[in-house]
Every structure is written in C-alpha cells, then in structure tokens.
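Shapes recur. One chain:

:::
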Amino acid sequence: LDARRIANSGLIGFMWAGYVTPLVYGFADRAVPGVSVVKVMRKTCISIGLLGTAGNWVNMATRRLLAGEIPASAISSTNADFVHVVVEDLRVWPAYDACVYAFVPVTIRPYMNAVAACLWSSYISMVSAKSPPSATTARLAA
C-alpha cells in the first residue's frame, strides 16, 4: 500500500465529497428551486458544468501534484486524460443528477452525493495514477 497516495486521496476526498460537492449541489438547489422537468435539467446542467469540467480537472491535477509530479507534467497529463474523463462523466452524472434532483428529498441528497462522490473520486484516483513515472513524467524527490 502506498501511504502517501492513501493520505492524499483521503485529503482530496474529504474536500471533494465533504465540501465541494455539497456546495455545488446546494448552489444548484438554491439557484433553481423546484422539481419540474425544466428545473431539474437546469440544476443538472449546473452541477455537470461545474463538477464535470473544472471540478474533474482540478481534482486530477491536484492528485498528481500531491503525488509529486512537477506542475508542467501534472498539467500535461491531466490535459491528456481530460477528454476521456469528461466523456465518462457524461455517461454517469446527467442521469444520476436528474434522478437526485427529481426524486430524492433535499435532506437525503447530501448523503447520496457523498457516496456517489466517493465512488467517482476512486475512479479519478485510478485515472490520475495510471501512468508510471518515466523520463518525460518528471517527479519531485519525495
């Protein structure tokens, strides 16, 4: 087991599932109150637009930086993986968000979102760690 990766994943997961995700879902609920089809679609667009794009990029880049990659390498490898991650994001999150916004009571959503964010963070962690270090993927000394 890689203790550094576990600690980094715990830190990012805590911030992501404990702060960022609830903040974005709460913002969508406040910005577009209600559960009509149009309102659910708007909320879904907000959460996908923020978490599925900038959120995923920042999540992957941060994991790589905390793992010791130099910034230029972390940015380059994050950019290389970004399109694939967004495609996968769009396969999962629109349906999830629509169901959550339409059917799950507001008081239960944070718990559902925490579980979903934990699972997604595991996926992002695997994507971020998939490439072994090489001559072109420079890492800082630990």
User: Anything to note?
Assistant: The radius of gyration is 16 Å. Confidence is low (pLDDT under 50) at residues 132-142.
